[in-house]
Amino acid sequence: MKLAELAKAVGGEARGDAEREIRGVAQAGDVRDDEATFVDDPKYLPLLAGRNPAAVFVRAFLPELHAPQIVVAEPRFAAIRASAAFVADPVFAPGVDPRAVVEPGAVVDPTATVMALAYVGAGATVGPHAVLAPQVFVGPEAAIGAHAVLHPGVRVGARCRIRARVVCWHNVSIGSDGLGFVRIGDQHVKIPQKGAVVVEDDVEIGANTCIDRATFGRTVIGAGTKIDNLVQIGHNCLIGKRVLIVAQVGLSGSVTVGDDAVLAAASGVVPHVRIGRGSVVGAKSGVHKDVPDGAMVAGYPAKDHMAWKRETAALKHLPEAIRALQRLEKRVEELETKDKA
Amino acid sequence: MKLAELAKAVGGEARGDAEREIRGVAQAGDVRDDEATFVDDPKYLPLLAGRNPAAVFVRAFLPELHAPQIVVAEPRFAAIRASAAFVADPVFAPGVDPRAVVEPGAVVDPTATVMALAYVGAGATVGPHAVLAPQVFVGPEAAIGAHAVLHPGVRVGARCRIRARVVCWHNVSIGSDGLGFVRIGDQHVKIPQKGAVVVEDDVEIGANTCIDRATFGRTVIGAGTKIDNLVQIGHNCLIGKRVLIVAQVGLSGSVTVGDDAVLAAASGVVPHVRIGRGSVVGAKSGVHKDVPDGAMVAGYPAKDHMAWKRETAALKHLPEAIRALQRLEKRVEELETKDKA
Amino acid sequence: MKLAELAKAVGGEARGDAEREIRGVAQAGDVRDDEATFVDDPKYLPLLAGRNPAAVFVRAFLPELHAPQIVVAEPRFAAIRASAAFVADPVFAPGVDPRAVVEPGAVVDPTATVMALAYVGAGATVGPHAVLAPQVFVGPEAAIGAHAVLHPGVRVGARCRIRARVVCWHNVSIGSDGLGFVRIGDQHVKIPQKGAVVVEDDVEIGANTCIDRATFGRTVIGAGTKIDNLVQIGHNCLIGKRVLIVAQVGLSGSVTVGDDAVLAAASGVVPHVRIGRGSVVGAKSGVHKDVPDGAMVAGYPAKDHMAWKRETAALKHLPEAIRALQRLEKRVEELETKDKA
Known about the structure:
The structure is a homotrimer. By secondary structure, chain A is an alpha/beta fold. In chain A, 16% of the residues lie in helices and 28% in strands.
């Protein structure tokens, strides 16, 4: 693709060598001579030192930048759109690959794709246009919705339900048993985990994330919720709609999360707590009690975000404050001594 | 199932519409019209607002609850028992599926089940009544004990030993190499990892958990220990019996954990530390030194649990304390000035 | 192997029963009667209580130790070398197993090994002497370098590049989409993730670790970097050479890590931050801003390691300091009262 074509594709204005060939898009710190990149703030120009990009998306022409430029309102989004123009979406041929295993009693829609080495258990259903990549496991009586995409190594346990347009990335585990044991004498006796998991429409789940089946009833992931990699969601959690759960978050059993909440990376929640609608839980924080709707909490144990900030800022002064206190104690002692004298 | 039948099945007393059909069990916040649920404390009744459960297990009849009830001593356990009555345990036919791969020299007991797309390496053994689900990997010379169940995607590396009745959930990794490198000049040179992992009887391991093989000798998980999802156990760890390790815990190499200890969620332990018998490590804490038998520790770095609680509580007062200290310094200064005058 | 043979193999001096048979190596706390172990400091001798090892590698002869001994300069490394002598490296026969799936248009070098149940997508390439274990997935147009080893369950997404001698452990995910969404109205709208991942020469990646593909361009793992288990690396991260990333670390999107940096276990970094060359990020810390070259940071939010240590030490005194402050306030009040009187 040439500069003018690319500018046209993103609705921008080309400035510079119109003949140079552009073969892809990359971030500024890693861009090659045949790739476009973007700079949405001149302060990032040093990232291009020693680099010779074929085109740079910019907000306004940058005379100090010696490279072909494309001026657009949103350089980052232009780069994203350009990238999509270079890399086609995958196309999946419908049908069951003969090297896949579909057990008797399973029902696969004729428009669905079941690739080689995928496994579909007895009584399971696979909906229209769903895609099961190689090495996917769909357990007995599980259901995969229309247009769902299960990437390689996804495991969907028995009787779990994956609704329409759900995307699960590599090695997602849905429907493993939760940690349900009762100590009786010198044994941990297992509590049967007979519930299931329901993943509602338009959910996306990141690689190696685990969602445990309910002890009874259902662990539910609400419609439109997006979950990152390596997240743990315990048995009987009820996650609302459009929730964002960032990487390495851990939710214990029976946690409820309201619609539109955000759980930042590596935060955790103890069992039976309710995270309010539209609330935000800070990264690496640990929540021990209910979070009100719309609240923002941080720290461990988690508290109001501003209170946590004040404490964190004050902590910097603690070593000096303790020394100051000791000095002050001496001064008061002196005053007292004089006073008595 | 009808109310009277269900009451009989759990040894409870039916109160209300005896003819309604009950088809399953769910938690209060998600129960449907044809399902039973439980309320073990009237304070949870609001969870049933707008819901119309077919039966509710209760400790004592609740007149304010307009739903069929079953009075039992332990409502939650009644719900668990009822759930098991609705969902049968899976039954596995013995034998090796022709679409599984069993390499020459492997020995599979005729009562064991090896499902389609499972792989058993050369020299491996699979014991009586063991179940290898689809897409399981058992490495060369590994051994799987009687009645063990390996769920889809479990990886058992070469020479590792899984004893009787062990359950491993989706994508568990047993026997990967630990992070063993020595820096020599400008390289990280690999230390050969030639040991193995031994998982003793009655251990259960959650989805996507990783247990590294020993550098030499054995990483050991003691009998009856239960491990949750996404846990990391480093090379040469020696975990005792009946230990509970909750989700996202990370144990560095050569950690020793005494019998009956509990490691709460997302806690971590540095290398070569000993966690005492029956001790408890708090959630998200980081342990830097040995924990005595029976101790309870929390925080980062982990310390006595009560000391940590006191510090955490005091921290709330720190911003105000620093201001108070500054005010006090001024007052002392004034007193000193007057004193001099 | 007999004591004298083993001593010779590690260049040490045998002391004690030369005829006892040694069949392996284990750590002191778990050693059996037919195994060797090591003690590099007499303080670890109690670990051998009640044990009867066939040989013990020691720095200097220990008269109080009643077991055959081998005196060597580095007992631990002698044990590692001995262990390698007992366990042979695996040998892989070249060729594609007929039970593997290689899609049309993929190119597998004749010296490479593709084991049963592995999958190689259309247009992918597998280099000389590379090994794909059972149940590995190599996506369309991905490239696997010479002598790379992908252990069971590794997933390499479309167009990703794995260079020479890279080792990926069980269930590693390379090339899943990152958490890239834009909130528009009441939806999280997906940002297409069309970039790839490049893993340079001599990288080793631990089990169940996830590396997201770039939004555009490349997520890069630099040559010689070693990554532990259960690590999350977000889209567009640029990781330098010879970096060490310990278990359960989480890097958000667009993080840059300089050469030779060390990220200790369970630490985390927010998006767009730069971790300096040769810097060290402490375990469980959370980095919110750039870390200078060679710096050592700890805590949450992460700060200079020594400042964090001082604050942490001071925190122990906080509960008492607050009480002391209150007592002092009273004393000053008394002085003020007297002063006024």
